[in-house]
Amino acid sequence: MKRSAVIFWALLLFCFVYSFPYFPKIHSANELPRVYLTDAVVETGEFHINDGVSRFGATVDVSPDGNNCRPRRHNCYSNKAPGSSFVAAPGYLLIKRVYGLVGAEFGLAEMVWACRFFGAIVPMFLFLGLLSRFLSNFLPTNKARGVIVVYALGSMAMTYSVTFFAHQLSAACLGSAMIFLYYWKQTGKKSLPFFIGIAGASAIVVDYQAAFGVVPLGVWFLVIAYKRKSLPLGCALGGLGFAIPTSLLLWYHYRCFGSPWLTGYHVTETFAFHHQKGFLGLDRFRPEAFFGSFLAPDHGLLIFSPWLIFSAVGMKKLFSKHRGLAVSCTVVVAIYIVFVSSISMWRTHWQVGPRYITVMLPFCLLGYAAYVKDASNGRSVNRLAIFAAATLLVNVLLSGLSVWFFCVEAGLFLTAILLFFRDEKATLLAGAGGASIAVYLSSSVLFPHFPDRFPNPLREVTLQLILDNHAPPNMGSWLSHGTISLLPVFVVASILIWRWIFVPLQLNGRRAAVSVLLAVVWLTMIGNVAVGDAADRAAYRATVEGSFLP
Predict the structure, then answer these.
(1) What is the pLDDT of residue 539?
(2) What angle do CA 51, 53, 55 make, to 5 degrees?
(3) Where are the beta strands (DSSP E) in 175-266?
(4) With a threshold of 0.85, does the pTM exceed it?
(5) 20 vs 547: CA distance, rounded Å
(6) Can you tell me the distance from the alpha carbon of 428 to that of 28, in angstroms, rounded to the nearest whole number?
(7) CA angle 318, 323, 326 (to 5 degrees)
(8) Count of CB atoms situated within 10 Å of the CB of 374
C-alpha cells in the first residue's frame, strides 16, 4: 500500500475512533438489545437476553418468546434482526477475554464499545476499502478518495458506524452485493454469484428492510446471468450463497419466536400498533413523511447531506455507459423514498436524519461520483462569493426564521446556484461536501441521538453542547473534559477535506474560501430556522445536557 493511502485510511479511521459518544442514561433501545444478544451468543450460545436485561435493565425494544413457542419459556429477546450481533460476536469475545486476563472490569460501557467497534466500525472500513477500489473504475484515485470522505464523514454512514444501530452494516452488505454484481457483469468470474447471494441475504439478516433493496438487485442478477448464458449455474451459486445467511435467520426466528416466519416485531408489545399496521408498517404514502424525511430542517436528508443534490444530476451520466448499474441504483433509491414515505413509524426516535434509509446511500454515491468526475470551474467565482456573502448577511439579520421561510429561501438559494453559477461545479461540490461533513461529524462525535421534540436539533443540541462546553469521553479527555478535547478530530477532518476534496478538485485559495463560505451559508440557514422556546430549552437541560452529567 502506498504511503498516501496509509495516511488517508489512518486519518479517516481516527475520525471514527477518536470519540466514544456513550450515554448510559439514555438506555438506548436501539443499541442495548443488540449488545445483550451479542453477549448472550458469546457467553451462553443462547439467543435470549434475560441475563442482560436482569443485569442492566430492560429496554422498550424487547420481545417475549411468542405464543407459538411450545412450551412457553417466558424469555426476553431482541426484536431486532440479529445479524449485527452475529458480526460483532468474534471481536467481542476477544476483547472480553483480554479484559478477563488482565482482571479489568468488562461493564456495559465496554460491551457497547466492543460491539460498536467490531460490529460497525470494522465492517464499515472493510466496505469503504471495497467501495474505494470500485469507484476507481469511474474516476481518478484521488477523486475517489474524496468521494469516500464525503460519504464516510458527511452522511448517516458515520452516525450509524459510531453507534450499534445496524443500518450502516446493512448498507455495507447491500452495497457490496451491488459492487459484486458490477464485477460479475464486467469479468464473468464464476465464483461471484455465490458472494452476491451471501451479501444480499446478509443485508436482510442485519436489517429487515434491506429486503426491499434486494429485489431490484435480484432482477439485475437475472439479467446478467441471462446475457452471460450462465442462468442455471449463476442461479445455483447465487441461491446457495443466499440460502446460508437466510437459513441462519429463519433458525433464529424459530428458536426465539416459535416460527421461521415470525420476527421480533410480530410479537413485540412496544409500538405494536406501528409495526403491525399494514404490511410491516407500510400502509399509505404520507406527504408529511416525504417532506419530513427529505426536506424538513430538523431531520431532512437533503438538508443534512446537500451533496445528495448533485447525486441526482450525476446519475444521468451513468446511463450512457453503465445502464444496468444506473437503473439498479435508481430503482433502489426510488424504492426507499417510497418506503420511508409510506411507513407508519417514519418518524423514528433518537435519530440524526431518516435512519431507515441509510441503506440506500451507497447507491446515491454512484451519481455523485459521476458528477465529481467531470467537475471543473468557470469564471463566476467572484459573483458567487458576493452572492454567498449577501445570503449570509440576510440569514444573520433574519435569525429565527419560520420553517416555510427557510424552505423558500433554501429553494431560491439552490435555484440561483444551479442556474447562474453551475459553471463553478467543483466549488459547489466542495461547499456541499464541507457542509455535510460539518453536520454529521459534529453530531456524531458529540451526541448522535437527536430527540424528536426539538424543531432545530442541529442548533438546539449540537451547537448548544459546544457552547456549554460538553463533550463525551474521547482520546483527548486527559487534556480537557470540554469541547476543546474534540479539536483534534476536527483538525484531522479539515486535513482530509483539503487534501482529498479541495486538491483533487483543483481549488485554489480563493475558490477554497468560497467553498467554505458556501458551507457556512448552508449551516447558517439550517441554524436560523425554527428556534426553540423555553420548553425546548428545559427539555435540553433535562434530556441532552443531563445525559452528560454523572
Answers:
(1) 83
(2) 65
(3) none
(4) yes
(5) 14
(6) 38
(7) 55
(8) 11
